[in-house]
Design goal:
657 residues; Rossmann fold; 4 domains; seven-stranded mixed β-sheet; 26 helices
Length: 657
């Protein structure tokens, strides 16, 4: 059973400070849970205690996805009531200052609170799996650790509707401060490589067209709510005044553009500094050459708009902001967006909390998050990339990862395996042999993009290279290739190749249509690409002493995966056919289903849905259409993949388009 602890104290003068979080859990959780909170949270919506509460505003409730609970809803759950008056008893210890008590609550162990937590935990069922809470609380962490119960810290994320896909924080170390974001990123060996730009990432998460105006010349200063935990505890000594003063040391006051927080109780005094009145953060960032922030989410948006930002607090994204290498910055930002941030509604799910308690790999977390953003997330991200072309073309790299990531998350059983990949090299009149090769070991997950880099022997400039991809059947797509001439240990400059199709001189398998990419269907178990590269070394980039570097990004799909895609194609055809064609289409779809291995949960589910749909269509075509439509929505990323690429079935069986 999962427990939820919500602070019983009126830190800012209002009881039940996390009332909307309580309502959101009640509206979202799939089972009875245990709440530890004050009686203030249980006041009836129409009672005097609830007069004027913003949480009861219908628009706010609709935006956050909750409703005020009925007595029947409350009766499903277990409650351990805590004393909201404890804060008043302890205030003299903190000079009578509620915010000083709040700071202690967030950063210190409070003995009286710890004892009350022990007493309340003793009244709960003995099978508590985890305690979810809003904001940090060392007292809770210590008491939970005594009993071996993990604490799950949660908060609203930095990207929110309506501008962005709504996100949240779910962290086992803390939120706002003491987070695990950087540590997880450092250990994320299985996080898939994503060849994308910062613009691609922004457009992928944006729900509105957010294009930045040409960079302005102002120094942006982002203020925060004065009684927020970000300023009370995780500010590294900075407050709003300190941040403005720091900005005035760096830039003359006339060149400052100060953006006040809309939730602040104070107004800015007129001064030489400009006050930002922009209608959006994007417009504000368009005026700035650089931004100063303590912990504000505007700092993350600055990164997404490629505006330099100095972060002075303990913001979870600070490790991204401080990365100076462009490639690593994109990689860290990708991890932060896809693996660390959580789809907002998903984090209130007991099944998701249990999923995270199971310590999944980062790739599995990414797959679950992609599903949480909606089954059409991959299609939307791909369309975003196509409609706003950048220097890299589209969001292809991301959508390829998403195509693969969403393929298996219904079963949450992504299988990773080690693969030995080799790069052979030869001159025009030479031949390939083991002594003229380089090897790399990669962790491969079916459907995920893999990026492999090989360094050639010093001074060697081969005419041809051959990339051996392992021993598995299926399709192999060479999505991107880059090359460089490494002249020092820290030289990581690589140049993209845009003519892979023209460079392909030999391969194993059936060449498939994949636009400017190279895609092969291999049934031999020995797939390879051979490419002409001799002209690269004549470039000025390869002058002088050094060693050639070849980097390739490829995607492998198993034969079963391609068969599933064909099953989806048959399902789409079933949804479109007239009734007199149903029998023929049923037979075609059954042939596909016969070739699907039933060992995978997602394959079994797909078979069951197709069979249900076909059975219904034989009696009532309309009902079959509805079922196929449901299947298509659930697996729309695969459908998108199918619409644009030939499949195993069509190549082997010669099926129609």
């Amino acid at each position: 059973m999962i427990a939820v602890f919500l602070s019983p104290y009126a830190f800012r003068g209002e009881p039940a400070p996390y009332l909307w979080v309580f309502y959101k859990f009640l509206a979202s959780i799939e089972e009875p849970i245990c709440f530890m909170l004050s009686a203030d949270y249980l006041a009836a919506p129409g009672s005097p205690a609830m007069d004027g509460r913003a949480e009861l505003d219908p628009a706010r409730a609709a935006a956050l996805g909750y409703a005020a609970p009925s007595a029947e809803v409350l009766a499903r759950h277990h409650f351990a009531l805590m004393d909201s008056g404890l804060m008043q008893q302890l205030l003299p210890r903190y000079g009578g200052n509620p915010l000083a008590f709040f700071k202690a609550y967030l950063s210190e162990e409070i003995p009286e609170l710890m004892q009350e937590l022990r007493d309340n935990l003793a009244t709960l069922p003995p099978d508590i799996e985890a305690i979810a809470t809003w904001s940090n609380c060392p007292s809770l962490a210590t008491v939970a650790a005594e009993q071996g119960i993990p604490v799950v810290y949660m908060e609203v994320g930095p990207l929110r509707n309506p501008q962005y896909r709504s996100t949240g924080y779910l962290d086992f170390s803390g939120v706002n401060g003491n987070t695990e974001a950087e540590a997880r990123n450092a250990k994320a060996d299985d996080f898939p490589e994503i060849a994308a730009t910062i613009d691609d990432l922004r457009r992928g998460f944006a729900l509105q067209q957010l294009e930045r105006a040409p960079k302005g010349d102002m120094l942006g200063v982002v203020l925060q709510v004065e009684d927020d935990s970000n300023l009370l505890c995780y500010n590294n000594g900075y407050d709003n005044i300190g941040l403005i003063t720091r900005a005035m040391i760096e830039e003359c006051e006339e060149r400052l553009l100060i953006r006040a927080h809309p939730g602040s109780r104070f107004d800015l005094k007129p001064s030489k500094a400009a006050r930002d009145l922009s209608p959006s953060v994007a417009a504000f960032l368009g005026e700035c050459r650089k931004v100063l922030s303590i912990n504000s989410s505007v700092g993350l948006e600055a990164i997404l708009f490629d505006v330099p930002v100095d972060v002075f607090g303990e913001a979870s994204y600070r490790y991204v902001a401080e990365e100076s290498d462009p490639i690593q910055r994109v990689r860290k930002l990708s991890f932060y967006l896809f693996a660390y941030l959580v789809p907002f509604d998903l984090m209130f799910s007991s099944s998701y909390i249990r999923f995270r308690l199971g310590k999944p790999t980062e790739s599995q977390i990414v797959a679950r998050h992609l599903e949480g953003y909606g089954v059409s997330a991959a299609e939307e991200l791909s369309l975003q990339g196509c409609s706003h072309a950048s220097s890299t073309g589209t969001l292809g790299a991301i959508s390829e990862n998403i195509d693969g990531a969403v393929a298996e998350p219904v079963a949450y059983n992504l299988q990773a395996e080690q693969a030995c990949l080799k790069l052979y090299y030869r001159d025009a009149d030479g031949y390939y042999q083991e002594e003229f090769s380089r090897s790399e070991v990669a962790i491969r997950v079916d459907g995920f993009s893999q990026c492999i880099r090989f360094t050639l022997p010093a001074g060697l400039k081969p005419e041809f290279v051959r990339f051996d991809l392992g021993t598995d059947e299926g399709t192999y797509e060479l999505a991107e290739m880059r090359w460089g001439w490494k002249q020092s240990a820290d030289d990581d400059t690589l140049f993209p190749l845009f003519d892979l199709s023209n460079r392909l001189v030999a391969f194993d398998g059936i060449r498939m249509n994949a636009d400017d990419k190279v895609k092969l269907l291999s049934a031999s178990g020995h797939p390879f690409f051979e490419l002409s590269v001799g002209d690269l070394w004549a470039s000025d980039h390869a002058a002088g002493e050094g060693a050639g570097v070849v980097e390739l990004r490829f995607i492998h799909h198993s034969s079963q995966f391609e068969t599933l895609l064909e099953a989806l194609r048959q399902g789409e055809r079933l949804a479109r056919v007239e009734s007199d064609e149903t029998s023929e289409r049923l037979r075609e779809a059954m042939k596909v289903l016969d070739s699907v291995n039933e060992s995978s949960a997602i394959q079994r589910q797909l078979m069951e849905r197709l069979l249900d749909a076909m059975s219904s269509m034989s009696h009532k075509l309309g009902e079959g259409n509805e079922l196929i439509g449901t299947m298509e929505r659930d697996l729309s990323s695969l459908v998108d993949f199918l619409r644009n690429r030939p499949t195993l079935w069509s190549k082997i069986k010669g099926g129609g388009k």
